[in-house]
Amino acid sequence: MEWENQTLSPDFILMGIFSHTPTRVFLFSLVLGVFTVALLENNMMVLLIYLDTRLHTPMYFLLSQLSLMDLMLICTTVPKMACNYLSGRNSISVAGCEAQIFLYVSLLGAECFLLAVMAYDRYVAICYPLQYPSLMSWKVCGLMAASSWILGAFDGIIDVAATLSFSYCGSREIAQFFCEVPALLHLSCTDTSTFETLIFICCVVMLLLPLSLIIISYTRVIIAVIRMSSGEGRHKAFTTCTSHLTVVVIYYGAATFMYMRPTSNRSPTQDKMVSAFYTILTPTLNPLIYSLRNKDVAKAFSKVLGKGKSRA
Question: In whole angstroms, how large is the CA radius of gyration of the chain?
Fold first, then answer.
């Protein structure tokens, strides 16, 4: 009955990210600009990898999965925020809140595991190049990618079931621009200490476990690269690994800061800034970090542009 009563309760109110600032119009336009760039970049990456046969390798397949996750992540939060800002109505239904929590938690968790899979892929490619076709076959690659999505979805189901089973008897104003779990916990009039412990355990599994695998993989990669006799091979390996590690540091740094801090150390302003960073800015940065210095992606882009011009 508690879940039914929760469903019939009034909508939540999203306070937004810059509703009361003097430069809110400029900031809103900036967010929309970043959102548009993220859409174009990630769509382009997925299409390029699909269209160009030279990019039909496990590494680029995993990269296309990352772009797809980033595309879905930014579409989970920004369109609703934009609709609320333009309409002046900041409400979100319980069902809408439930959907947001499930999607963004699932995607964040899936991306954690996918980054670990990508690190393993580079480890095998650099340390065991002769065994790479068997160790990273399409079957193994597909299973790893699918496992990332499934584990992320499992985490999303746990968070939705627990968060929205709480009673919200006081203010229903969420100090965020989307339904984020830590912000919702502040509104509950029931004891959430058990669930906060569960969140911490989930973070250890979803953040620290993949991060440990990433650190182990790249430590071995760096050792192998240093021992390489070819300067060109060493430079190419370092370039690829640097791109991967940059994404890992940005992503894991923001997620760890957001979900593994004690509740007493939180402030709404900090939470909004960090949330905007990993849900809006990170999906925009990832394609740039991976593709700007990647010659194969640049060639694929030129090839697609050349076909488009010839048809025109």
Answer: 21
